[in-house]
Amino acid sequence: MAARILVFAGSARRDSLNKKLARAAAQFAREAGAEATFVDLDDYPIPLYHGDLEGASGMPENGRRLRGIFLVWVALPAAPPENNSSVSSLLKNTIDWLSRDVGDGKGGNSGLAPWRGKVAGLMAASPGGFGGIRALPHLRQILAALGVTVLGTE
């Protein structure tokens, strides 16, 4: 059985270097025999996470759709842009929404379900001198807290 890999970038920019990197990584994985796809977070607009909004309306529909996609993949290579020495607000907001419980907190309803037991590799592209390296430890810490095994080092 081929590895199931979901590759994503944390950028909303149409011509983002990190989207290009993530798409190339997905193509490379397919060429190596994996089942791989790229998901563009910008295709799933969701409001900023707000506990009162969640309490009143639950998870937004695009959050549920995106969460369903994350549930079925076992590897999550990510290419976050670096914004102010950390991950982008788009990526952090997506993680915040997808990590919310969507029911009784058991099985696939747990906020950890899209993350726990998954494996991730981190990569970044930037025209700047640091190449995105300052965002990667932050993303590593966030994903590890959700139960993702993050491979390699920055």
Biggest sheet layout: 3 strands, parallel
Q: What is the C-alpha radius of gyration, as a whole number of Å?
A: 15 Å
In percent, how helical is the residue content?
25-40%
Low-pLDDT regions? none
Label the overall shape: globular
Q: What oligomeric state do the depicted chains represent?
A: single chain
Side by side, the strands of the main sheet go: 2-1-3
What does it look like?
The protein is α/β, with parallel strands linked by helices. Helix content is 34%, strand content 11%. It contains five helices and five strands. The strands form two sheets. Strands 2-1-3 form a three-stranded parallel beta sheet, with helices on one face. Strands 4-5 form a two-stranded parallel sheet. Strand 4, helix 5 (136-145) and strand 5 form a beta-alpha-beta unit. The longest helix has 15 residues, at 17-31. The protein is globular. The two termini are 29 Å apart.
Give the secondary structure arrangement, pairings included:
Elements: E1 4-9, H1 17-31, E2 35-39, H2 51-57, H3 61-71, E3 78-79, H4 89-98, E4 119-120, H5 136-145, E5 149-150
Parallel strand pairs: 1-2, 1-3, 4-5
List the defining traits of the structure above.
34% helix, two-stranded parallel sheet
The gist of it:
This protein is of the alpha/beta class and 154 residues long.
